[in-house]
Amino acid sequence: MAVAVALVVWFVAFPAPLPVGSIAIVQFTAQGTSDRDQALALSMTENLKAALNSSGRVDIRDVRSRQSKDAMSAGRSIAATTLLTGNLQLTAESAHAVVTLTRVADGKALWTANYDGDANNWFPMEDRAASDLLRRCCGKSRSCSITRPIRPPIRFTGGPA
Which residue of 21, 28, 69, 77 has the smallest Cβ count within 10 Å? Predict the structure, then answer.
């Protein structure tokens, strides 16, 4: 019985890697239009891209140069097999992100996760998303992990006064 429980815990903690192939990462979208909303969208996009790139196990394709309103079309145009997208919502105190990895060939969502965090210190939320994404893309490999120096919370003021 203990062995069965251990196996279940192992496979939940370290699922088999997804067949991601190459990933097109699309700039995450923010529900709001403020500088703070856009800063979080850019930060989340770039940090997930950096985490995947640092793994050395994922082929990342850049879609920023593609002029397409349809992310799936952009992914196809650069021969990506999967597409990473995200949607962010901020309030004065909280941040919420939905991150999705979709197979380009048929539009099937391979992985989706929700993250909640502090709107004034979103790095822990980004780190959880990056860790989960790496675990899903790399499986049990110990070479797929992230480390981030401890940073103080950022208080976004909205720009120069």
Answer: 69
